[in-house]
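Practice problem 4.
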């Protein structure tokens, strides 16, 4: 059974799906959750506090999903592909997550206001955490990068060090940034192929497009079996 706080957050999120934030009323959120308005204010302090709590929960839910995917997928590339594809898909269906990841807030969904300087701390521990500050897109990128790096390093034989560790960290961050770019500007084939190309999926490496010379002195085009007549450019040079 959800707690009073979770019920209120669910009711606020449902109200936000129907109206812009400016049209969401605290009394309506309390009624929808089946709780008193006093309980609502005890939990969040104000409408701004409710907004911060919504975004904090969205960030936590997203990072929990990232951790789940890292635990389910194996290999050096598949976990990164899964995170990128899931991120793009979730952002399409969750406007609050999309705004959190991209920083693209608007009139319908404005960025939560920070706590007023000098305001007394919230009574609820969860609210104090929400009031402490919300992650910016760059913070989310760093959090996903570090989680991915730690998971892939644990899964690698003997771990990584030095230049190899730096390269792996770069690839982890590149994947998140590719995903966020596809949230803003979707691609027809999805983000998966982009990720595999960018991080160098061993399973998709292709043979260099060069011709090889057969024993009979003819040249064969790799991957086609076609035999080309005439001497090779190297033979002519010689």
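Answer key:
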């Amino acid at each position: 059974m959800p707690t009073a706080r979770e019920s209120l957050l669910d009711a606020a999120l449902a109200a936000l799906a129907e109206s812009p934030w400016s049209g969401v009323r605290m009394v309506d959120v309390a009624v929808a959750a089946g709780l008193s308005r006093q309980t609502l204010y005890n939990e969040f302090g104000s409408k701004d506090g409710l907004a911060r709590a919504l975004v904090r929960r969205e960030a936590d839910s997203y990072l929990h999903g990232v951790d789940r995917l890292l635990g389910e997928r194996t290999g050096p590339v598949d976990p990164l592909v899964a995170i990128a594809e899931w991120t793009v898909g979730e952002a399409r269906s969750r406007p609050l997550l999309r705004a959190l990841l991209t920083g693209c807030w608007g009139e319908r969904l404005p960025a939560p206001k920070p706590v007023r300087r000098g305001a007394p701390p919230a009574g609820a521990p969860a609210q104090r955490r929400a009031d402490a500050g919300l992650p910016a897109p760059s913070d989310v990128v760093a959090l996903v990068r570090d989680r991915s790096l730690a998971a892939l390093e644990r899964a690698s034989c003997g771990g990584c060090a030095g230049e190899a560790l730096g390269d792996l960290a770069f690839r982890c961050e590149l994947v998140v940034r590719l995903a966020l770019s596809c949230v803003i500007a979707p691609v027809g084939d999805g983000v998966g192929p982009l990720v595999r190309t960018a991080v160098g999926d061993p399973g998709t490496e292709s043979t260099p497009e060069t011709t090889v010379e057969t024993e009979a002195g003819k040249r064969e085009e790799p991957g086609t079996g076609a035999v080309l007549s005439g001497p090779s450019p190297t033979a002519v040079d010689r």
